[in-house]
Amino acid sequence: SRTPLREALNRLATEGFLTTTANKGFFARELDANELFDLYELRAYLEQTAVRLACNRASDEEIAELRAFLLQQDENSRMLAGEMLKLDEEFHIRLVQLSQNEELAKTVKAVAERIRFARWIDTQSRRLSHGQHLQIVTLLAERKDEECAAFVLAHIQKHFDQIREIIRGAVTEIYTRNSEDRRKHR
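Predicted structure:
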């Protein structure tokens, strides 16, 4: 019925997935490069904090479970892009949960949901991040909190840089095509 649908749309608008205009309805939000940068910066800060806490709070068994989760992925190397992205996101959520700070985990999940659409842009490098995830777990197991935090920052920054380059290339291609199309129609 209309009421639950309206409530769902309002919630999506509140969480930033949709925009709303009075008397016109709900619309998909546009890709905002500054917002994306802010979200990636926030994600990097939160995950650095989480791994510092996890180095002190996570048990050896919890870290071993995270490693086992990653090693399971090695067995299925023919995953589709969507599956890889889901497992990548799940790794980061599990990593943050090792901090044993529920509010931190909730916030990281919310940020992950808001950047998920952008992460689809960079599906090609997801296979490469698996080795980096194993390195993060190794540093975590060795309780090297500062090294682990620095590695997490570099890992997230690398993916964001790749997304930014893909977007920049796509915008350039669109602009070039539009310019060529206008010249042809003159």
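Summary: Residues 45 and 127 are 24 Å apart (CA to CA).
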